[in-house]
């Protein structure tokens, strides 16, 4: 019977990709040490969409939350389930998830980050998930208390939805270290909660989830708008747009024009931050890090993607086309090398058989 299950529910843009990369890269090592990541990364994602009953669940998805819970229950040690999409679950969905993992000792892990960095990152993540809404509309909706998709992924609400389902001592809030902190610090905080010994896991040099510049993300937003109903499911969009355009091309581009929140919203962000910190101070949970790290630092004026000119978008598009040509050429060369390697292998096997 499973001893403990750690459910890492996000939020997006709080180092989740980095943490998950470490976990999945070291899956076999962790398993030998007694900690299981059940199923696969993709299957855990499918289980999340099943639990949340989302309209955008891929039609070919086969894994359900109950299948994931059943596999977890067979492991005699500790289990880690990690998917930042889980943070968007309703109270009822979170309760169902925790019940399905009983009688294991369920722990909930939430990661929080300062709003000044989170809001631009969250909007960018929305665009990378096919959104066509502008940055200004995104911010304006949040100012009005709208956009549950955002609020449900804040540390405060995730703790209310998920943390309330377990005893206070099993609620863990990890704060993202401030800019300039050692790369490994976030992992050390996560590993400390789960009980992974120092030095057990191999740590990649840096996060793979790099941000796009203002011109590049505006180009992608306009592309989403033109795509219309094409690639309506997550898997297709990720395969054709993220895998072949965003990852190998746009992320490798110039990305010189950084974007963020304008200073005209600084007072609002600071006031909202103090409200969030006060609420978290009163919420019974274990804080790993410091709530002070939720306060923004280094506020400065930046450009908005809405301010990017057509000329800048055109330049980014031309650079993307050049990148696509280079990327396609690289794919062609690799394909040719693979063919040659297979032919050589086949010839070597035939020669070996003749000698016998």
Task: Give a structural overview.
A 6-stranded parallel sheet has the order 2-3-1-4-5-6, sandwiched between helices. It has 14 helices and 6 strands. The protein is globular. The chain has helices at residues 16-25, 27-32, 41-52, 65-73, 91-100, 115-127, 135-143, 148-151, 155-161, 185-194, 214-227, 234-246, 266-282, 310-355; strands at 4-8, 35-36, 78-82, 105-112, 171-175, 286-288. The mean pLDDT is 92. With 356 residues, the protein is α/β, with parallel strands linked by helices.
Main attributes?
356 residues, alpha/beta, Rossmann fold, six-stranded parallel β-sheet, 14 helices, 6 strands, P-loop_NTPase, Sulfotransferase family protein
Compute the CA-based radius of gyration: 22 Å
Helical amount among residues, as a percent range?
Answer: 40-55%
CATH topology type of the domain at 4-208 and 262-303:
Rossmann fold
Quick one: CATH class of the domain at 4-208 and 262-303? Alpha Beta
Shape: globular
Tell me about the biggest sheet?
A: 6 strands, parallel
Strand order of the largest sheet: 2-3-1-4-5-6
In percent, how much strand structure appears in the residues?
Answer: 5-15%
What is the architecture of the domain at 4-208 and 262-303 at the second tier of CATH? 3-Layer(aba) Sandwich
Q: What is the H/E string?
A: EHHEHHEHEHHHHEHHHHEH
Number of strands: 6
SS content category:
alpha/beta
**Parts with pLDDT < 50 across at least 5 consecutive residues:** none
Straight-line distance between termini: 53 Å
Counting H and I runs of at least 4 residues, what is the number of helices? 14
């Amino acid at each position: 019977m499973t001893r403990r299950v750690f459910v890492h529910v996000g939020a997006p843009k709080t180092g989740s990709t980095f943490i998950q990369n470490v976990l999945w890269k070291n899956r076999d090592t962790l398993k030998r040490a007694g900690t299981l990541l059940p199923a696969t990364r993709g299957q855990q994602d499918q289980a999340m969409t099943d639990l949340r009953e989302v309209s955008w669940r891929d039609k070919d998805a086969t894994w359900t939350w109950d299948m994931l819970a059943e596999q977890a229950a067979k492991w005699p040690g500790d289990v880690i389930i990690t998917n930042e999409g889980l943070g968007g679950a309703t109270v009822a969905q979170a309760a169902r998830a925790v019940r399905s993992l009983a009688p294991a000792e369920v722990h909930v892990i939430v990661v929080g980050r300062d709003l000044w960095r989170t809001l631009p990152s969250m909007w960018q993540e929305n665009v990378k998930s096919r959104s066509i809404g502008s940055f200004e509309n995104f911010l304006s909706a949040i100012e009005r208390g709208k956009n549950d998709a955002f609020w449900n992924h804040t540390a405060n609400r995730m703790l209310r939805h998920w943390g309330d389902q377990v005893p206070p001592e099993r609620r863990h809030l990890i704060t993202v270290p401030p800019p300039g902190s050692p790369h490994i610090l976030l992992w050390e905080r996560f590993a400390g909660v789960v009980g992974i010994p120092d030095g057990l896991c191999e740590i990649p040099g840096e996060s793979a989830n790099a941000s796009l510049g203002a011109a590049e993300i505006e180009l992608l937003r306009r592309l989403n708008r033109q795509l219309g109903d094409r690639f309506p499911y997550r898997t297709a969009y990720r395969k054709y747009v993220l895998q072949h355009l965003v990852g190998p091309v746009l992320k490798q581009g110039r990305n010189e024009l950084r974007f963020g929140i304008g200073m005209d919203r600084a007072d609002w962000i600071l006031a909202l931050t103090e409200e969030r910190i006060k609420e978290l101070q009163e919420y019974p949970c274990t804080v790993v890090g410091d709530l002070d790290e939720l306060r923004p630092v280094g506020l400065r004026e930046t450009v908005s993607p809405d301010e990017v000119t057509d000329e800048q978008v055109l330049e980014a598009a031309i650079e993307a086309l050049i990148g696509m040509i280079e990327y396609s050429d690289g794919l062609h060369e690799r394909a040719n090398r693979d063919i040659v390697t297979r032919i050589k292998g086949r010839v070597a096997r035939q020669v070996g058989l003749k000698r016998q």
